[in-house]
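Reminder to self: keep the SMILES exactly as supplied, no canonicalising. Ligand is NAP.
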Amino acid sequence: MKIALIGYGNMGQEIESLVKENGHLVVSISFKSRNEKLDLEGIRNADVVIDFSSFEIVVDNIRQVMRLKKPMVVGTTGWYDNVKKVQKIVQQHNGSLIYGQNFSVGANIFFSIVSHACLLLTKYDYDVFGIETHHSGKKDSPSGTARKLAEIIMKNFPSKTKLQIERVQGLIGKNELHFASVRGGRNFGQHEIVFDSPSDEIRLTHQAWNRKGFAKGALLAANFILSKKGFYNFNDIFIKTLGVSNK
Ligand SMILES: NC(=O)c1ccc[n+]([C@@H]2O[C@H](COP(=O)([O-])OP(=O)(O)OC[C@H]3O[C@@H](n4cnc5c(N)ncnc54)[C@H](OP(=O)(O)O)[C@@H]3O)[C@@H](O)[C@H]2O)c1
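Structure tokens returned for the bound complex:
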């Protein structure tokens, strides 16, 4: 595969190493420094484009890549209020795009575990909340993974009807799912879901030890999107491929 990278920070560099290890080729890197523009010429020469940049520029990147009719993997998080708009852009160009809140295999299995835990525990006297911790350089908050987990919990734990990501100044409503975000240090990403009852507590945690899992998943997604048309979410195809359920 000839790959064009957009964004050359932590993830861009991790993917570049993995691409080389796997015998693929990086033919273009956009935004090695801030004042550059998207490398349209390089992208024209690529089979697939992988974006790990920033929520501030990702929608514009997508628009430009779709104009060039290149399949695209979007790992960048924090732009999900624009999902419908982006889906429309992809459809208008008869393009191909796959995005993922978290590309690691472990996190996608964790989504299914949390979904099943909710289905079991919602029948008993449990409350549920979430906490995520990321390194001090992470720009978006809450994380894309936290948003995905909140979506799964609210689907499968009917007493929670409202996501609360703000600092709670008073009593929290029983219908509110509180998901707190902590930023600091070097954590690659920890997501913890806590189920609490009058008698006990269950804590489910996913901890990323490094960025390799995200990079591997992004390459899996690149391989998938090469021969497809349409707009996909990585978790949906992951569930279908592995046959795990995530109701
Ligand atoms: N889906 C997943 O599995 C997954 C996993 C990990 C991370 N992520 C997401 O991927 C994205 C990148 O993460 P990262 O850790 O690689 O971040 P990072 O180290 O900050 O790298 C971001 C890259 O984009 C560039 N950039 C940022 N804002 C820009 C702007 N306004 N104009 C031009 N270039 C800009 C940065 O340039 P500078 O170096 O000049 O700032 C850098 O090259 C984030 O949204 C993160 O949440 C997703």
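Points to follow up:
The radius of gyration is 19 Å.
Helices lie at 10-21, 40-44, 58-67, 83-92, 105-121, 144-156, 212-225, 234-242.
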